[in-house]
Every structure is written in C-alpha cells, then in structure tokens.
Amino acid sequence: MTFAKELWDGNFPITLEITPPKTSKPTVLLRRASLLKSVSSAVNIIHRPNRQSSLAAALELQKSHIEPIWHLTVGGKSRNTIQTEIENAQAVGLENILCLLGDNTSKGDLKVHETITLLREKLSPSLIATAFDQYQEKSNKYDILSRKITAGATCIWTQPVLESKKLQKEAERLKSTYPDTLIIAMAMPLIRGDQLARITERLKIPEQPNLANRINAGENEAWEVFDETVLNLATSPYIDGLAIMTFETDPEPQIGERIITSLKLAKNATQGA
Question: For residue 161, what is the domain's CATH number?
C-alpha cells in the first residue's frame, strides 16, 4: 500500500525525514533511509545546499524499492529549472511531492502555489504536500496557505512539534476550514538541552523553559517528552500522520530503535482506547 493510500484510508502512516549525503553515496543514503524501516511507509528527503539534490536522492531510493517523498523547493529557482525537475520526476513516476520555499528565500520565477498548479498540470502525482509553520505569527499565513490548497495541495506538513497544544489549536482551525486536507505533524526527539536551543533558534520561536528543564533532567526524561508528544499527535482527531526527523544527520541505530519504541507505545495506546 502506498503512503498516499495509507493517508487517505486513515491508517496514520509514518514517514522518516532524512538529509542526503553531500554527493551520491547510495550506501549512506540507504542506511539513513532504513533507520525506521520496520515502521515507516515512506522517506522524505530534504533539500540542502551543497548536498545531493532531493530529486536525485528520491530517484535512488525509488530504485531500491523505498517509497520517496521529493522536496521540491522553489526559492531562487527559474521557471525553466522547476519545469525540468518536474519533467525528470514525471519520467520516473515520482508520486509524492512536498512543495515548499526551502532554505533559499530569494525570489524565484514561481511562487509555491504557482508551482503546485504546474505540478497538477504536468505530473498529477498521488500526493502534493505543502509546508505550514504553526509558530509563524504573520497575519496573512492562512491566505498564503489557502492559495496553495486552491492550487491543488492536499496535505499540510508542519514544523517540528515542541508543544502539542499550539499545533492542536492550529490544526483544529485548519480542519474546520479545509476538512479534506490532510495534516502531517513532524516530531523530533531532542535529548539534550543544546539541541532544543538550536531548534528554537532555527524556528525563530521563544525559548521553552519548561521543556528545557525536562530535557536537561536527563536522557530518560527527554525520551518521555518525545513519547508524550508522539502520543498526543497520534490521538489527535486533527492529525493524519507523522513525519519523524532526527537532530543528527546520521543517527546511531539505537536512536532509531528508541523512536520505534515511542511509536509502538502510541500505537498500543490508541488501539487500547
């Protein structure tokens, strides 16, 4: 069963978000993609400057029979570049696309919603997702999101969830306005205080003193925080799936094993409810 079908059928699928190597290294890519192999339905590959492109990595995973989710970034790109990437994806039958601005925030030829329109016209993939920052305070963020959904996005991808109440409030509003739009929430285990500090800085959100106190209390307490986050998201009536991201680019296998434990705890809790 494909990742998109699992979403549509309400099976609450899990996807793993990974960083590709700096150059094409299939062994490294497959190792990273296999971290949650026993529980993940797909692997989404982020786009980073000076690394293998998300599209190239997605093609390598597809050849290895791992379902990929391609990050199509539009920031700073020309229309021709975007069209060529879409044509390459079309040629190999990529079906899952997360369309977003990306780290390059300079103006390109096409906005995200314009690119989504182009995707629908040229590619007709099974799933077009777009990013949503639940922490952003801009007054027009829902207007921007509306344009993306009208253009053809059927799934919303959140930023890492540090505090589930904030996302629950935003997700409730999203579902009331766009009831057929699916929401994938991102969860990231943070097991040291410096990791939390770097993530809050990257997300440009205020410090989280209560969360910091728990994470700084030790690794066991930090993993309990992650367990609670995963459980809250898995039991939410507004969240349709999870994207798991790790702080480390190349995490140790035991990190993957502990994440799988969290996911299984949440699954058992929801089945027993």
Answer: 3.20.20.220
